[in-house]
């Protein structure tokens, strides 16, 4: 069976669903650069969600994984039951942003020059780095650097055009 995902902002108690942005729900059905759903999340990280804790929550994610944050059960289901749904986020192109930055670890990923896969698509690193539950369903990511999926789940993130002082580059190769 396929695993479905939604993006959850733990701090704002909000979430987005890929289907509201003309996308399918499985991780690798919407985790590409120039995708309306990913663009909506990146635009939120530039302003309204800047510095907030973000999770690309899968419906097969662990129960109680976010208990230290005050959430019992599966975050995918918990968000749907108790958080506000955002349906009309800005989906303008996000190519103007050069970096995704992690405040907790003081590392960044450069968005320019990401590798293309065999189908000539560029996988956007944000969904994979914040994915909770990857590897448990059809449509999840399987490939290089798969072990880094979820590495930034529930971390404080933002996007920028400049590298913040004191941050170190983090190289990922999702293809």
What is the domain tally? 1
Low-pLDDT segments, ≥5 res: none
- Bin the strand percentage: 15-25%
Query: Which percent range fits the helix content?
Result: 10-25%
The total strand number stands at: 9
- The gyration radius over C-alpha positions equals 15 Å
Give the structural class. Answer: alpha/beta
Helices, by number, come to: 4
Q: What is the ordering of alpha helices and beta strands?
A: EEHHEHEEEHEEE
The general outline is: globular
Mean residue pLDDT: 94
CA distance, first residue to last residue: 23 Å
Oligomer: single chain
Largest sheet: 9 strands, mixed
Defining traits:
175 residues; single chain; alpha/beta; globular; 4 helices; nine-stranded mixed beta sheet; 16% helix
Topology, pairings included?
Blueprint: E1 5-9, E2 14-16, H1 27-30, H2 36-46, E3 52-58, H3 75-82, E4 84-85, E5 99-102, E6 107-110, H4 125-129, E7 131-132, E8 155-160, E9 168-169
Parallel strand pairs: 2-4, 3-7, 6-9
Antiparallel strand pairs: 1-2, 1-3, 3-8, 5-6, 5-8
Give a written overview of the molecule:
The chain has 175 residues and is α/β, with parallel strands linked by helices. The chain has one domain. It has helices at residues 27-30, 36-46, 75-82, 125-129, and strands at residues 5-9, 14-16, 52-58, 84-85, 99-102, 107-110, 131-132, 155-160, 168-169. Strands 1, 2, 3, 4, 5, 6, 7, 8 and 9 form a 9-stranded mixed β-sheet that branches. Strand 1 and strand 2 (14-16) form a beta hairpin. The longest helix is centred in the N-terminal third of the chain and has 11 residues, at 36-46. The two termini are 23 Å apart.
């Amino acid at each position: 069976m396929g695993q479905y995902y939604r993006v959850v902002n733990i701090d704002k108690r909000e979430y987005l669903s890929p289907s509201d942005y003309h996308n399918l729900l499985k991780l690798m059905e919407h985790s590409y650069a120039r995708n309306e759903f990913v663009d909506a999340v990146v635009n939120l990280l530039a302003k309204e969600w800047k510095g907030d804790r973000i999770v690309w929550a899968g419906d097969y994610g662990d129960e109680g994984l976010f208990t230290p944050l005050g959430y019992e059960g599966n975050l995918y289901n918990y968000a749907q039951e108790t958080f506000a749904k955002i349906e009309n986020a800005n989906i303008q192109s996000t190519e103007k942003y050069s970096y995704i930055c992690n405040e907790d670890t003081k590392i960044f990923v450069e968005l320019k020059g990401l590798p293309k896969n065999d189908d000539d698509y560029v996988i956007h690193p944000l969904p994979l780095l914040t994915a909770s539950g990857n590897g448990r369903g059809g449509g999840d990511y399987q490939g290089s650097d798969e072990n880094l999926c979820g590495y930034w789940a529930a971390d404080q993130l933002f996007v920028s055009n400049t590298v913040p002082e004191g941050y170190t580059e983090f190289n990922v190769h999702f293809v």
